[in-house]
Structure formats: C-alpha cells, structure tokens
Amino acid sequence: LRLGHGRTMPEHGHGGEELTLILKGSYHDHMGRFTPGDVADLDHEIEHQPIVDSDEDCICVVAFETQAKFKSLWARLAQPFVGI
User: Fold this and answer.
1) 42-84 pLDDT, tens per residue?
2) How far is Cα 77 from Cα 34, in angstroms, rounded to an integer?
C-alpha cells in the first residue's frame, strides 16, 4: 500500500485480523504514530483513519483476513478497483 504525503486513508474497520508493516514514511491515527519498522496489529474491533504525516509517501505491507470495511459510500464504491 502506498499513500502520498498528506493523504488520508478513508475511515474503516476490519472484518478480521490485519497486520501493517511500515516500510517508509509514517502515519498516525487515534492509536498513535507508526514509523518504519513498526507493525500495527489490528482486529475486528478497531476502526481508524490513518493520515500520512511524513514528508514522503508512506509505504506499507498489509496482510489481512478480509477486506477493510469502509464507512463512506465513495470508498466502498472504489474498493473493488483498488483491492483493499
């Protein structure tokens, strides 16, 4: 997953377990700030909206059991085209 500088991921929840490894850049959400080498370990109870806060793109490797559950209609409509 690559998010550009200053971009915000749409608010979403998870249908199961999700692990996100930060490779480059950083983001923050209500759980804290994640930088290279950090792993965000999320489950079905977590809803969040990551915001890239580094001067560079944030590049992450994401492993998930099921697709994200986006809250906004526009994000849900785009989901089949971006594969998240």
Assistant:
1) 888 888 889 999 999 999 998 887 667 666 666 656 655 665 6
2) 28
Strands 27-29 and 58-64: unpaired
What residue type is assigned to position 42 of the chain? Answer: L
Alpha-carbon span 25 to 3, nearest angstrom: 9
Question: Would you say 9 and 23 are in contact if contact means Cβ atoms under 8 Å apart?
Answer: no
The half-sphere exposure of 79 on its side-chain side, counting CA atoms within 13 A, is: 16
Round to whole Å and give the CA distance between 11 and 49.
4
Taking the alpha carbons of 32, 34, 40, 45 in that order, is the dihedral positive or negative? positive
Predicted structure pTM score: 0.76
Element (H, E) at 76: helix 73-82
* CA atoms in the 13 A half-sphere facing the CB of 29: 16
Reading the block at residue 62, the tokens are: 């994401």
